[in-house]
Amino acid sequence: MSHPEVHGVVVIARNGDRTQSWQDPVSYKAKGTTSTPLGEVQSHQLGSFLRKTYLDRSSSSHIRGISTDLVDLKEVHVRVKVGSEGASVFDSATAVLQGLFPPNEKNRMTLANETTVVAPLGGYQYIPVETVEPVNDRSLEPWTDCPAFQERVKKIQNSDEFKKKEQDAQKFFRTLKDFVFGMPTTMENMYNLHDYVSTQLIHNKTYAHRLPPTYIEQARGFADWRESAIFGDSQMNGIGNIASRTALSSVLRALQRIAFNDDPLQFMLIETTYHPFISFFHQTQMVKNHPELKAIPDFGSALAIELRRAPPPDAREFLRFKFRNGTDSDFQTVHVFNHHEDIPLTEFIYRLENSVINSNSEWVRACRTSSATSWLGLPESASDVTNGNYMDIVLSMGLFFLVMLLCWSGSQAFKRYRRRNYIRLGNEEVGMPTAQVVNYGTEKPRLTLSS
Prior knowledge:
By secondary structure, this protein is α+β, with helices and mostly antiparallel strands. It folds into three domains: about 5-175 and about 230-350, Phosphoglycerate mutase-like (Rossmann fold, 3-Layer(aba) Sandwich); about 180-225, no CATH class; about 395-450, no CATH class. It is built from 16 helices and 14 strands. A hairpin with a 5-residue loop joins strand 3 (about 110) and strand 4. The longest helix is centred in the last third of the chain and has 31 residues, at about 390-420. The N and C termini lie far apart (about 95 Å). About 35% of the residues are buried. Belongs to the histidine acid phosphatase family. This is Phosphoglycerate mutase-like protein. InterPro entries: His_Pase_clade-2, His_PPase_superfam, Histidine_acid_phosphatase. It comes from Cristinia sonorae. Pfam families: His_Phos_2.
């Protein structure tokens, strides 16, 4: 095959270093974190690396026809997960974009009075991003508030394999107690243990000097095993792969847009946390040939999906996958579905189409939840309505109208009450007397009137 040209790229990036994160071992709801200067540097380095790879005309992976100096907002789209770890993910996306499209003095304009104005900070380029909040859009955080996923977590943690792994870790847990200061040393809590040790090792000099050798490697190994078991499902459409099943909806739509000649989109960035990486590697069967991917990716990691078009007479679209773990390595080409070369776009879509979750209504069914508070109550397409995918929303709307009817009935009853119990004197309403039962000691009750 001749060298195909890169026509566009979808990049899934993990946020950079941040303060300690804690997430519930079952629901995976996490407390807020903030990015650190180190994390911002990591993400900026990733952006610079992507610029050198895809925007430098001398690069073999240069995206054909893309604007390189000043960003063309029609060619670039950015989606940012702002649920768990939202602040650090958003800051990371900003830093990536700063490295991808650095300040440029060409970012200027001339006013009517012939005054030239250069954008702040030497021509800083402001690139809008689409923030994806789980309250409205489940595509980048589908694992929280998902009963089916929580059932899976509990099932795994009750499995013999999990219990055996926890037994194997007991010796390590006994020695780790002195370095986690009261945190539960269990396999169930392994992600939080690793995150605490890792965060302290990076940011706490005293802690770093005390931590014995191999402790961070052991903590990382057990955490990798647990998260791979939770977020990696052997079934392509299994609930364990839900993190990538929803994210792939954005990926496939972007690839189809890039492949369409009349659509200007050429670069899409999805900034997120570690969860969809693990699921994607399992769902696309990358882990079969690359078992090292059964792990939590480092901060600043990126998976690039390149759409390459072969020269005529073939002119088909192929996908090439490249993974960069952290900021200290180069892209490594990895293969999906046991391919040993680029995969046709059509085959990739065909293999995945029955497992991808394309809408919030499909997420509701996959999670086996009837909650109507996690999505907007409007159809996302006409086909969703005709296919009957919005039964839950219809029921919710019915409940809404029932409440409105009850409120209307109550207001009518109140009006009738006023007509019966009030008389109008001039411009003033006076309450009519009402009957009360009064009982004085041993006397028989008698009626009195009171205003």
